[in-house]
Prior knowledge:
The complex is a heterodimer. By secondary structure, chain A is mainly α. Chain A has 16 helices and no strands. The longest helix of chain B is centred in the last third of the chain and has 18 residues, at 478-495. In chain B, strands 13, 14, 15, 18, 19, 20 and 21 form a seven-stranded mixed sheet that branches. The two termini of chain B are 37 Å apart. Chain B contains 18 helices and 22 strands. Chain B folds into three domains: 34-49 and 208-277 and 507-543, Periplasmic binding protein-like II (D-Maltodextrin-Binding Protein, domain 2); 75-188, Dipeptide-binding Protein, domain 1, CATH 3.90.76.10; 282-505, Dipeptide-binding Protein, domain 3, CATH 3.10.105.10. Chains A and B meet through helix 2, helix 3 and helix 8 of A and strand 10, helix 8, helix 15 and helix 16 of B.
Amino acid sequence: MITYLIKRLLEMIPTLFGITLLSFFIIHLAPGKPTDIFTELNPKITPEARERLEKLYSLDKPILVQYGMWLKKIVRLDFGASFSSDRRSVMEKIWDNRKPLLERRLFVTFMINLLSMIIIFLIAIPIGISSATHQHSLYDKITTTTVFIGFAMPSFWLALLLMMFFGVYLDWLPVSQLKSMNYDSLTLSGKIWDLAKHLILPIFVSAFGGLAADSRYMRSSMLEVIRQDYVTVARAKGLPERAVIYKHALRNALLPIITLLGLSVPGLIGGSVIFENIFGIPGMGQLFYMSVMTRDYPTVMGVLTIGAMLTLLGNLMADLGYMLADPRIRAK
Amino acid sequence: MKKAFYIFLLLLVLSGCKSKTSATSQTALKSASDEPAYGDTLIEGTIGEPSILIPMLAGDSASHNIAGIIFNGLVKYDTDLSVIGDLAESWDISHDGLVITFHLRKGVKWADGVEFTADDVMFGYKTIIDEKTPTAYSEDFRQVRKAEVLDKYTFRVTYEKPFAPALTSWGNLVVLPKHLLEGKDITKSELARNPVGMGPYKLNKWTSGQELALDAYQDYFEGRPYINHYIYRVIPDSATMFLELQAGGIDMMGLTPIQYTKQTETDFFKSNFQKFRYPAFAYTYMGLNLKHPFFKDKQVRQAIAYAIDKSEIVDVVLFGLGSPSTGPYVPNTWPYNPNVKKYEYNPEKAMQFLKEAGWKDTDGDGILDRDGKPFEFTILTNMGNTLRMNTATIIQWRLAKVGIKVEIRALEWSTFINEFIDKRCFQAVILGWSIGLDPDQFDIWHSSKTKEKEFNFVSYRNPEVDELLDRGRRTFDITERKKAYFRIQEILADELPYIFLYVPDATPIVQARFRGIKPSPTGITYNLPKWYVPKKLQRHTLEP
């Protein structure tokens, strides 16, 4: 077990290296430079000034040298300074230690995605089970249609409709952002209530879109399991249907959900460009989008590297989880 | 180029929702006494978040907007675009135009209480020309031969050659608090996100991705601003911002043409908001690559101008919120020449001109040709800009009527600029310029500015224009300058290196409780410190 773990962890190093190398070259392949915001169509700039700016960002060096410089820092876990005009360090943009938790992008995204993931699982698993046990019933058809509507509906459109209805027409919920202007002067319970009101719509929008995948996985895995012989045996020996489904079948049907959980880990910090922009939520998706648009290479690479690491860790965790849960896999 | 402004134009057709307005607030709005009073908060919505608040290091317009109310310059533009003193009480220009001596205001204090002196200007000047300062604005200051501090309140600069834009370059880019920055690396300074200025507002709190909260500076040298707090809320999506406006989450924003003409034409908006409209300092044009065999010929360019109906574009694309443009200046400003050749829509004349230039439809396919080559070209523009795409589509349709086939291609911004504009790989482009307040446009029209990445990318070359551009920037005499720029516009209107299309209107909306707003050619925010809310109508009563 331990050797397996060490082997897997060691394998991750070249994979991660490959990912960063590819991402670094691809982002540099895109036309444009971080200095464009100063120089593009700015008649006041001279070629000398442009060269000076490019030199300040080491953009005049060959790309391999630039990658080497970046790599040298990253092995010390230093993501470097952003190329945007504020020159703040990438780490500070993602996770600023001096700021309250709610003003750190990584925390905001993590909180929203974790909440919506919990809600998705809490709703999708029961839906999946019940529509499997009532396969082809009206209930099955209605839930299937509903989750697919959620999946197919553009999230920005749903978000705008909900904002219009709850934010403007009924005036029950705030339209955008994370907290009210007077947040700092509220009591603790007031703060929690304020935050909750701001989170309802974004979490609903992101959860509604995510229901389809999980509930469908759950449904098909359940369907497969209840056709197994041991379920027939359980029924044959006269167990009540509840016990058959929830005690015997569910345990096995949940196995693929472990993989699903592992795959969700990188999503927890990736954030969504679309709903973070629509709701004006300062999370990782927004940061990543802005950095790509301004060709802020260190920030783009920082976010990608963290995402890649989490993806690899998530895969590893899923495999380990599988091993713990399923003796058949452990044996191999 | 304020591209962010153009890019986010999500036309939301669903405007059915109406917010309720209590009858009381409406009557209160009308009957309240109009006495200026201190207090309340102005919340402005913005699509982009500022990145840095030191003016000389900032590149984006959001940063400059906020830095502009935190820092003052030595001089500024008055509402009629003449130059007036700001931190400088007065200035003298020597007869040869080489020496400018600024006499600074006495007793102006930085927000931390330290007095502002000529040393701060000198420090700012030295910083901006420093090789290590990552600034895009050093060029005007490199023309300075000598800068000297004569005494605490007198600052003098000497130029190699007379340089008219020099005076106005001494705006807020070069004034920095020496006592806080001396000996430090400006790129790593705390001041970037926590600036100390002397303008009407000072930064109180910056919540990344959310808002910048500014407080009135009580000791502002032109008097304490009436409105106590100014909040700049970051809402990256313009449809969301419009909903926030209706929900009362923001007081002020820029409207899109459809929002201005349709969605805000309801009773709710009429009684709760005031809308403004004035020409923006920008114009949109179709640039023609003058090196391309089709467009080398002046008559062909004129034919294209005749074939396009500019007022139709304004009416359809901008919902009438703009005006046809005849040259690179904004109507009703002093450099603008109203008496240049205009090209009224005239397809017959266009066809006649094309015929004279040798273009005939010999093979009967509906497309003109010359020497066996059909008149086909591609208009490039940037992706995501609906206004420009719609403009291109109308032009495509109009030109088809005179027998010219046009393709339209939208490209991602960076690709467009780096691969097509910079490398001159285009036939025609639709783009916009934002116009500086100084009329000097040397970099756009001078024949020496045609190298890669320079801005005369259509490769325009006219010795008379070159000479006039030079004359215009070498004298401070406004009548002399006017003469030069008027003549340039006549030549440009005749030779048409660009087909000038339209000047869009800026269309801001402000909550009705704010008073004291006086629209001017330079916009509405120039007198922000003088805006106020009558006591009875104040909404946010948080005290500092």
